[in-house]
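Board notes (copied after class):
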Amino acid sequence: MANNSQTDNLNQTDSKSDIDIVPPRLYKVVLHNDDYTPMDFVVEVLIEIFRKNEFTANQIMLNVHQQGKGICGVYPYEVAETKVMRVHELAEQFEYPLKASLEEE
C-alpha cells in the first residue's frame, strides 16, 4: 500500500506542473513635462523614487524636458501605482506640478 500512496503523490505533483503561470502585466511609469518643475528636482525624484544613478536620471530628465515625457521604469501594477503616488506626494510637498502616469507595457 505504501507504493500506491507514493504513486498518487507523484501523479498529483505531475498534474500541478501542467498549470500555466501567467506573469503579471507590466506598466511603464512616465513623467510628464511642465513649465515650472526644475530639472534638478526631476533628477532627484528619479534618484530617490526610481533608484536611478545620476547619469541615467539626467538622461530621463532630458527626455522629459525635450520630448514632453520620459519613461522612469517598468513595474508590476501595484509597484508602478505606488511610484506614481510617491512622485505626486513629493511634488506636492515642494509645490511643483510634476505629474506621473502609467502606461501598459
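Comment from the instructor: DSSP finds four helices and three strands in the chain. Helices lie at 2-17, 39-48, 54-67, 77-93.
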